[in-house]
Amino acid sequence: MWGYLLAGFVVLWLLQIYLTTRQMRHYRATIQKMSRRESGYLGVGVEKKKLGSGTVLILVTDENGVVEECRVMNGVTVFAKFKKCKRFIGQHISTLQDEKWEHPLKMASDKIKQQMDTAVTV
Q1: Whole-prediction pTM value?
Q2: Tens-digit pLDDT profile for residues 51-74
């Protein structure tokens, strides 16, 4: 009996490792795909929660800070995938607001602003 229970635990653990690796590959592929633009800036915002769903938000802007592309991954499980978010496209990063994704939006916007400041001062 204990042998079956232990074997079941090992199978579930290996499945978790496999699915987590798959999700990380999806994350990296999405970041690479979105960063292939000739010009502009990319910012990633993350909100981790101990309980409840976490959020990863990726913004791509042009040189002026206007959002050209946005993707959001929101969920609790390793089955969560990035989805296109049209809500912020065409808006300037300084005007972005959303109660649901307040923290990731601010984090992604701040990273883009840092890149813009670095590009100007160099």
Answers
A1: 0.83
A2: 888 899 999 999 999 999 999 998
- For 65, phi and psi rounded to 5 degrees? 90, 15
Identity (one letter) of the amino acid at 26? Answer: H
What average pLDDT is seen over the chain? 90
The amino acid occupying position 72 is: V
Query: What DSSP element (H or E) covers 41?
Result: strand 41-47
Residues contacting 31, CB < 8 A, separation 6+: 42, 44, 58
For 69, the token pair is: 């592309």
CA gap 76, 51 in Å, rounded: 9
Structural domain boundaries enclosing 20: 2-121
Q: State how many domains the chain has.
A: 1
